[in-house]
Amino acid sequence: MRSDRHIYTNMEIVTLICLSLSLAADAFVTAVCDGMAYRPKIGKRIAIALSFGVMQGLMPVLGALLGDKALGFLDAQNYLAFAALLIVGVLMLIDGFGKPEKTRSKLGVKTIALQSVATSVDAFACGLTLVTMKLPLWIDGVTVGGITAVLCLVGVCCAAAIGKKFSNPERFKLIGGAVLIVLALKHLVYCFI
Length: 193
Prior knowledge:
This protein is mostly helical. 82% of the residues lie in helices and 0% in strands.
């Protein structure tokens, strides 16, 4: 017969996995947009997944460690995410309207880093709730980061494979830019709720 403590730990693990999946949603959508629009090679696909995973895993741990000191940042987090996603989305839209042979921007390290930070600021706020869970913070960070990395890798790889079936990646840049702008607007709405 299992003890109450064992059942409680299982509930915490299920809660953590569900939290990880919900936190990974923005990063997954962004990775899919990158995959379809830029069709990155395998090395860059892994870089996208690792970058998103590391930031998603790091942010909730930082939020938990900083605790009450982080409350000031929480007021600005949605504005930061809005600005970062809006910038990347607008640049992707501009790139999508350009001539196919004159691609203005590529999916570089700066863009991936900006996307990683923008999609992970909400995880910082969730870190404040992680202190109420009994699992060690490093397990929280590894779980959130690992699930995000795996989902992003699957998303970017599948999207790149689909994108290769079409001859015009600019249309996917338009779609990806629009999706990122919608994600940015979601964060802006949260600023006023």
